[in-house]
Amino acid sequence: MALSLGGAHAGNAPAAPRATTAVVASQAWIRLPPPAANVAAGYLQLYNHGGEDRLLGATAAGFGQVQIHAMRMDGEVMRMQALPEGLPLPAGKLTALQPGGYHLMLMMPRRPLQDGQQVPVRLQFARSGEQRVDFVVRDGKEAQRHGPGAGR
């Protein structure tokens, strides 16, 4: 889960797109996991100002691996599913990575996360190249109380 293909940080608000930046990230946050957890979930909004694109993958400082996941219903049970082919980003559309839906699964943290901490994440897009996005660690309860923008 953003920031820049040109250097602007969008962890707090959408950045004005640059000529080479078709996808603009905003509201990037990571849910604060329990202290001994070996995974954390990252969320953000991706608005594609350009042609069809795809989020192919990500890397994050302080984590061994990052995967793109979707939640899906399997009968009465909600399950996570990795998206090894990435996440399509339709032209002119907003794609939300949010609790209960698409998200980034940040695995194998090198140290525990703290509320308010910033985590730099590099997002890799098929057409838009690479962007660095600063995600802010937030208590998930705070984000639920204040709505989707609370994770900014």
Written description of the protein model:
This protein is mainly beta and 152 residues long. The chain contains one helix and eleven strands, in the order E-E-E-E-E-E-E-E-E-E-E-H. The protein has one helix at residues 140-146; strands spanning 3-4, 23-31, 39-48, 53-60, 63-74, 77-82, 87-89, 94-97, 103-109, 118-125, 129-138. Strands 1, 2, 3, 4, 5, 6, 7, 8, 9, 10 and 11 form an eleven-stranded mixed β-sheet that branches. Strand 2 (23-31) and strand 3 form a beta hairpin. The longest helix is centred in the last third of the chain and has 7 residues, at 140-146. The protein is globular, with a radius of gyration of 14 Å. Residues 1-13, 15-19 and 144-152 have low confidence and may be disordered.
Question: In terms of topology, how is this protein built?
Answer:
Layout: E1 3-4, E2 23-31, E3 39-48, E4 53-60, E5 63-74, E6 77-82, E7 87-89, E8 94-97, E9 103-109, E10 118-125, E11 129-138, H1 140-146
Average pLDDT across residues?
85
Q: SSE order in H/E notation?
A: EEEEEEEEEEEH
How many helices? The count is 1
Helix content, binned percent: under 10%
Number of strands: 11
**pLDDT under 50 segments (min length 5)?**
1-13, 15-19, 144-152
- The structural class is mainly beta
Distance between the termini: 12 Å
- Which percent range describes the beta-strand content? over 45%
Any idea what the radius of gyration is? 14 Å
CA-based shape: globular
What's the story with the biggest beta sheet?
Answer: 11 strands, mixed
